[in-house]
Amino acid sequence: MISVNNVRLQFGSRVLFDEVNLKFTKGNCYGIIGANGAGKSTFLKLLSGELEPNKGEIIIDKNERVSILQQNQNAFDEMTVIDTVLAGHKRLVEIMKEKDALYNKPEFDEADGIKAGELEAEFAELGGWEAESEAESLLNALGIGPDEHHVLMKELDAKKKVKVLLAQSLFGNPDILILDEPTNNLDAKTIRWLEDYLLNFENTVIIVSHNRHFLNKVCTHICDVDYGKINIFVGNYDFWYESSQLIARQLREQNKKAEARAKELQEFIARFSANASKSRQATSRKKELEKLTINDIKPSLRKYPYIDFKAEREIGNDVLFVENLTKKGYFENLSFTINKGDKVGFVSTNSNVLTKLFDILAGVDKADSGTIKWGKTITTSYLPQNNSSYFDNCDLTLVQWLGQFSKEHEETFLRSWLGRMLFSGEEALKKAKVLSGGEKVRCMLARMMLIGANVLIMDEPTNHLDLESITALNKGMINFKGCMLFTSHDYEVMNTVANRIIEIENGKKTFDRLISYDEFIEMQ
Fold it and tell me: Please, which contacts does 46-50 make with residues 24 or more away whose CB atoms are closer than 8 Å?
């Protein structure tokens, strides 16, 4: 168990947390959520001991081992893969080194024998004799085969390094497992394996993740970081989200009623306070008004964009015909037809193939051969994964930037679209070239909504977005009435939006069915 008692953390004049009191108990999985910059990852550093609070204390039983998912992929480059996993249990590694040092002494005396016996007993208690086989099992389960167990970490590509570091954090059945964005760069199969592993994990898990499907699958509790406070709610992310939205609506309705009553009382007082015959009533109303408390709903730091794609033109029956499309090095003789109502999730282990396909369909690039025929009623809008050409060296303000794509150039009109994407007031006058990755994607989504196309092409649309923006985008994609061609590493987006899956592997179309993403994954 971890007890967080009256914790405060401050950097300079900025108070990140204050008066935080929490308990994380065995058998539960806690998802930490909050707006960008709220301090989610910083809070994990407090729990792991990497940071010390300015005030209060974090208490962990001295007999409980804390394991952390390491973020530095290059930290173990000079170690073998198997040794990197074993390094997840520091005390076990220390014992192994101490034992080796004792047994390698030229003169092994009685004191050494006693010490060695103590170390052997502790080694056995910690599962030392099974340690290497456990590490190998974890690696095999994560797709790191026996032929790679004894190579140096620096010889692995980045995606495999992530898996090894995940195995390291899970190794040795830690009492407290702390994971910061554990699904980043993991394929769907590995994420499913991790979900199952955590569902069967009997100790304490604390996670920061932007993957809503993952949070929904594994979390028993949600810890909401807002206004320097952290509140724990029972349930997964969806339960927290729907509950918080319901409570907010109820509070707003209460406020409307209270405000209406206050206005009525104020008008009564103004009309009758000078009237002697009504003075007693006016005095009683005044007292009632003074007692009336209008709930001050503090707006959350967590803001949700408003994303709603509406097509300006009704989509016809003929949407898209692709025949024998070939691009050297990517795909060959690719054929498929997109029908009215299709929302197609494209899948490939090589994301570059899908990016190239979308570029060609959107007219950004050309195929070597084959034909693409769009229906006469079709208008398209493209959200590329790499949007740098829209922003690099662009000296325009956001209002001016969005105006490039609009028939209407009235500033108020353009600001309304930017406001939907959380660029209000002075934010709308920022230079396009200084935007963060997430801000650029939100601008591209504003552009896409403004264009009003009836076919949307999206290449990894959730990249760089925070959890709130992803949630809003997901709803917008679900509600869109036109056709959609997209790919996303966000499981929830793929599963809730796509009604058809097309898979492209080794340059060929290997799967094409009207099916949900969940059903597709089950078939793998």
Answer: 46/4, 46/7, 46/9, 46/17, 47/2, 47/4, 47/178, 47/206, 48/178
The answer to the question of residue 231 being in a domain is: yes
Q: List the structure tokens of 423.
A: 């660029």
Rounded CA separation 521/524 (Å): 5
What the block records as the tokens of 26 is: 């065995």
pLDDT at 269: 58
Same domain, residue pair 336 and 461 = yes
Q: DSSP code of 301?
A: S
Hey, is 378 helix, strand or coil? Answer: coil
Cβ–Cβ under 8 Å, residues 42 and 9: yes
233 and 264 housed in the same domain? no
- Provide the whole-model pTM: 0.75
Q: Which domain holds residue 85?
A: 2-240
> Across the strands, what pairs with 123?
none
Shared-domain flag, residues 72 and 96: yes
- What are 180-224's pLDDT values in tens digits? 999 887 888 899 899 999 999 999 999 999 888 999 999 999 999
Task: State which residues of the chain have pLDDT below 70.
Answer: 261-262, 265-266, 268-301
Instruction: Please give the structure tokens belonging to residue 370.
Output: 């084959």
192 and 262 share one domain: no
Q: What was the pLDDT predicted at 275?
A: 53
**Residue 37 within any structural domain of the chain:** yes
